[in-house]
Design goal:
Elements (H helix, E strand, L loop, with lengths): L1 H16 L7 H7 L9 E6 L10 E5 L2 E6 L3 E7 L2 E7 L5 E7 L4 E10 L4 E8 L1 H9 L2 E2 L5
Parallel strand pairs: 1-7, 4-9
Antiparallel strand pairs: 1-4, 2-3, 2-5, 5-6, 7-8
């Protein structure tokens, strides 16, 4: 019985994760060059844990929906200097404020820990070295249109 439950949970995770539409590989490779225009900043938003991998989290920036981020996916936004509010709204909304300066890359990590009834989610900034390493092993998700 326990094995059956484990197999069902694993299968749910695989099916659920694969349902996030991805950008084509050319766009993914361009984003992974980490090039920044002098009058813009790049914000990379990603997940990289399997914990809660079958959950997909709706992400918005300044109230505008990006789409959902699942395990092993990321988004990249080229933005102007300013304040940005990154919000995850799966069950209990979690928000992170980020002040960006032009000419830089920012890496925002959506972290998941399993709670009793639902995942516990946090949003935090990672340093550029760890952020680049994380993004390089992820796939670029398509933005909601």
């Amino acid at each position: 019985m326990k094995k059956a439950v484990v197999y069902i949970l694993l299968l749910m995770g695989l099916v659920h994760c694969s349902s996030v539409p991805l950008e084509n590989s050319a766009r993914d490779q361009v984003a992974k060059q980490f090039l920044v225009k002098p009058d813009r900043a790049n914000i990379y938003i990603y997940r990289n844990k399997f914990v809660g991998g079958f959950y997909k989290y709706p992400i918005s920036v300044n109230g505008r929906a990006l789409g959902v981020v699942s395990s092993s996916t990321y988004y990249v936004l080229a933005v102007k200097e300013g304040l940005y509010k990154i919000k995850e709204s799966y069950s209990w909304p979690v928000e992170y404020s980020l002040s960006v300066k032009n000419g830089r890359n920012y890496f925002i990590f959506v972290d998941t820990a399993m709670g009793f009834f639902s995942p516990n989610i946090s949003i935090k900034e990672q340093d550029e070295s760890d952020g680049r390493d994380s993004v390089l092993s992820r796939s670029l998700a398509q933005r909601q249109r």
